[in-house]
Amino acid sequence: MSFRIIQLVMSLCFLLLFTNANAQFGIRAGINVSDQQFESQFLKDYASPIIGVNLAVSKEFVLTNWLSLQPELHFTQKGRETEFYSFGGRMNIRSTLNYLELGLMGKVNVWNVNDVTGIYLGISPHLGYGVGGRVKLKNSLYSSTETVKITFGEDYKRWDLGIGVGGGLEWRNFILDIRYVHGFTDITTGGSNYMKNRAWLFGIGYGFNSRKFGK
């Protein structure tokens, strides 16, 4: 699929998200436990995950009693933390990348427990746009800390295409959501290295009009 087609699909998601059509508007807040798949011809990777913020607004369009479409707009933080030893000191490098992500989740209600409780599975392709970030460097030998601003387009590619799969529990107006997010885009800007975003998302949400399951 060409990038132009992806842009058209994401534009449709944006219009659906902010249309006045009858649908359930929701908000969600949570955390990302994220890492980045990294490969290099010359470096061995010793990275560990970081915890970042995930905030989202959504609008659910119910198609049938078991299927719905849900455009979403996220602010999400991804990145990685790496440690290595240099000249007798320990270096710690923590990268945090901030994205705005527009996605379209297909939701399948797999079990309607009762009228106000349901369990769902979902799949959500998304397109991320890098809006900023920072790299924090700590040197234990000199007890020094330095923070460097990330510039998308120079340090990392700005666009990031990926997909999320997961599920959750809805009870009355409240939502518990868990997803695994897998990036397809090599976000490095060149050279022999490549890096792709990975994350687990844990969120709690609220829908502003209660839904009846099994109806």
Our Rg estimate from Cα atoms comes to: 20 Å
> Helix amount, in percent?
under 10%
Q: Identify the strand order in the major beta sheet.
A: 1-3-4-5-6-8-9-10
CATH 2nd-level architecture: Beta Barrel
Number of separate structural domains: 1
Number of strands: 10
How would a textbook summarize the main sheet? 8 strands, antiparallel, barrel
**CATH class placement:** Mainly Beta
Helix-strand sequence: HEEEEEEEEEE
Compute the number of helices: 1
Structural class: mainly beta
The pLDDT mean sits at 84
Poorly predicted runs of 5 or more residues: none
Instruction: Kindly report the CATH topology.
Output: Porin
What's the shape?
elongated
Cα(first) to Cα(last) distance is 36 Å
Task: Determine the strand fraction and express it as a percent band.
Answer: over 45%
Please tell me about this protein's structure.
Helices cover 7% and strands 67% of the residues. The chain has one domain: Porin (Beta Barrel). It is elongated. It has 215 residues and is mainly β. The mean pLDDT is 84.
